[in-house]
Amino acid sequence: MQIYLPIAEVSVNAFLLLGLGGIVGILSGMFGVGGGFLMTPLLFFIGIPPAVAVATEANQIVASSFSGVLAHLRRKTVDLRMGTVLLIGGLVGAGHGVILFNYLKSLGQVDLLVKLCYVAFLGVIGGMMFVESLRAIRQTRSGKKVPKRKKHNWVHGLPIKMRFRTSGLYISVIPPLLVGVLVGILAAIMGVGGGFIMVPAMIYLLGMPTKVVVGTSLFQIIFVTAFTTLLHATTNYTVDIALAVLLLVGGVIGAQIGTQIGTRMQAEQLRILLAIMVLAVCFKLALDLLLQPSELYSIGAVGGH
């Protein structure tokens, strides 16, 4: 069943979009990530223009993150004060990210920038996760205890300190603000919630307890991605509602299935699976950039000319 997407200006199979939404929803439920860092490249592969994929995917993340936050609020595993500090940084970053995105779009370079960002980030993060998960699996099999993280690092020496009761922390607000700014810029340029960067930063840099991290991360993601979607919709007109609805329906169903699967697997196995998938997407994107396209010239308006 082919459906025409008016903003993307392409016809795509509706069941394919529902399936993609479902797959990313399953991953979201299994790994506690928004899934945007996998969904956006998958949309590139089926022919959705990068500018439309980025703006529309931000829309889907809002909904999947919102359902996740409600569950975490019931369990009281959301640090609202930390989430608000991250959010302030995120809104500043998203505003600057959309300005940069619009500037590059006017030059006709936005598609290349988005794809290069994905190759760089997915390569680094996938590689780090793979190595760390392998080490954890080896230590578990050999019967050694996984070493605990150090509670204090250079972050605790910075000024402008604030008490975050839910996380049990008394640290400077500067690092959370900077993490928020970085995630906001990524949300605007790459159409991701940024959880795949924010979650490790909150655990290893800020020293937050793991049980509080996912809920707090999702709380910030909702508002930053909603703000990003609004900016893209009003300045670029690149949010495709038909595409967003199909991805959303698939994503909501998939998230329920993913949550069930995730509870039956060990954390190390989940992480190594996710790392392999991230590296596979990174490899495919890099190949697309390096290989000569089948059609060297395409007719299209660049930068509105």
From TrEMBL:
Instruction: Give the record's keywords alphabetically.
Output: Cell membrane, Membrane, Transmembrane, Transmembrane helix
- UniProt-recorded name of the protein: Probable membrane transporter protein
- Any one GO cellular component localisation term in the record: plasma membrane
Location in or out of the cell = Cell membrane; Membrane
Q: Identify its membrane topology class.
A: Multi-pass membrane protein
Pfam families (alphabetical): TauE (PF01925)
Q: Which family does it belong to?
A: Belongs to the 4-toluene sulfonate uptake permease (TSUP) (TC 2.A.102) family.
Transmembrane residues, as ranges? Answer: 12-39, 85-104, 110-131, 177-205, 212-231, 237-258, 270-287
- Per the record, the major location class is membrane
